[in-house]
């Protein structure tokens, strides 16, 4: 029976990006592309990821997280007083903007909370930031590098699932994004810090909000960004000097490199006398 060289998980969301399939591949002793179990699990849980980034001094949007057992503690009046009338509500463990809603009234708020809890046992309620959506691609293991920036240009208020995958007319990118060189360098450094803080390897896309006042906030890290026709991750590397074919080859090499590094570690203790 022939042994597979490398696995490239292309499953988004739960079981695909949350460390589950990564753990299965480790048990099967197969090299795979993308972050390991820990990095995948951390980045999937947006609440935990934000806490770790805050601890590392990285700016993230203000917000609060609630589990299903804490629903009675969700107080609309208190949240609007703290975060403002416009809020973003989303499942903590999901992707592709599924279950995400921007709200500005109590009725919209309550409906969005119910929707988010349909997808996860924990929801995040955040302030709504007004600014540009800037993204960077990160590539590497122990010495990762960061691409040039791209900007998401959507005609809808929210970069929704439909905008990302079903409506190319409302899903456009400026690649590279028009930013001052100093701001690009600053954001690249933050992207790299977030990548390392959240224990990522192989690849990730780092999503930012850039306000009109020049403040930068990390929104999230996507550990298995799409490689579809409209995908920004490979496009950013293309303008940064790595074409699609070379990018795939590089990802394969990174997966094998990590696998060999981990295989060199001892996994058991023998001949130990008590």
Structure explained in plain terms:
The chain has two domains: 20-59 and 129-263, 2-Layer Sandwich (D-amino Acid Aminotransferase, Chain A, domain 1), CATH 3.30.470.20; 63-127, ATP-grasp fold, A domain (Dna Ligase, domain 1). It has helices at residues 20-27, 37-44, 46-55, 76-83, 106-117, 161-165, 181-197, 232-239, 244-263; strands spanning 63-67, 87-91, 101-103, 122-127, 131-140, 145-146, 150-153, 172-174, 202-211, 216-222. The longest helix is centred in the C-terminal third of the chain and has 20 residues, at 244-263. The strands form two sheets. Strands 5, 6, 7, 8, 9 and 10 form a six-stranded antiparallel sheet that branches. A four-stranded antiparallel sheet has the order 1-4-2-3, with helices on one face. The N and C termini lie far apart (42 Å). The chain contains nine helices and ten strands. The protein is α+β, with helices and mostly antiparallel strands and 274 residues long. Mean pLDDT is 90; it is low at 159-167.
Strand tally: 10
Order of helices and strands: HHHEHEEHEEEEHEHEEHH
Shape: globular
Give the full name of the CATH homologous superfamily of the largest domain.
ATP-grasp fold, B domain
| Average pLDDT for all residues | 90
Give the domain tally.
2
User: What's the CATH architecture of the largest domain?
Assistant: 2-Layer Sandwich
What is the CATH C level class of the largest domain, in words? Alpha Beta
Helix proportion:
25-40%
Distance between the termini: 42 Å
- Biggest beta sheet attributes: 6 strands, antiparallel
Q: Report the total helices.
A: 9
CATH topology of the largest domain: D-amino Acid Aminotransferase, Chain A, domain 1
Strand content: 15-25%
Could you name the ranges where pLDDT drops below 50 across 5 or more consecutive residues?
A: 159-167
**Which class do the helix and strand fractions yield?**
alpha+beta
Rg (C-alpha, Å): 20 Å
């Amino acid at each position: 029976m022939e042994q597979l060289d490398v696995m490239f998980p292309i499953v988004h969301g739960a079981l695909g990006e949350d460390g589950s399939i990564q753990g299965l591949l480790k048990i099967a002793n197969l090299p795979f592309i993308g972050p390991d179990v820990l990095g995948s699990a951390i980045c999937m849980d947006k609440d935990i990821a934000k806490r770790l980034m805050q601890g590392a001094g990285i700016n993230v949007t203000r917000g609060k997280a609630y589990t299903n057992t804490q629903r009675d503690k969700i107080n609309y009046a208190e949240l609007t007083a703290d975060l403002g009338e416009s809020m973003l509500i989303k499942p903590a463990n999901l992707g592709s903007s599924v279950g995400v809603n921007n709200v500005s009234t109590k009725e919209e708020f309550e409906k969005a909370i119910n929707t988010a809890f349909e997808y996860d046992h924990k929801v995040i309620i955040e302030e709504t930031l007004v600014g540009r959506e800037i993204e960077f691609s990160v590539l590497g293991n122990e010495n990762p590098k960061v691409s040039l920036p791209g900007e998401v240009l959507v005609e809808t208020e929210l970069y929704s699932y439909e905008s990302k995958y079903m409506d190319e007319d409302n899903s456009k990118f400026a690649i590279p994004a028009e930013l001052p060189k100093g701001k690009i360098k600053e954001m690249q450094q933050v992207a790299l810090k977030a990548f390392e803080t959240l224990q990522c390897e192989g690849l990730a896309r780092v999503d930012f909000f850039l306000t009109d006042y020049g403040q930068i906030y990390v929104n999230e890290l996507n550990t298995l960004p799409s490689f579809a026709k409209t995908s920004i991750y490979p496009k950013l590397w293309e303008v940064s000097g790595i074409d699609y074919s070379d990018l795939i080859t590089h990802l394969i090499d990174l997966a094998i490199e990590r696998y060999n590094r981990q295989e060199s570690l001892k996994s058991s203790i023998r001949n130990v006398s008590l």
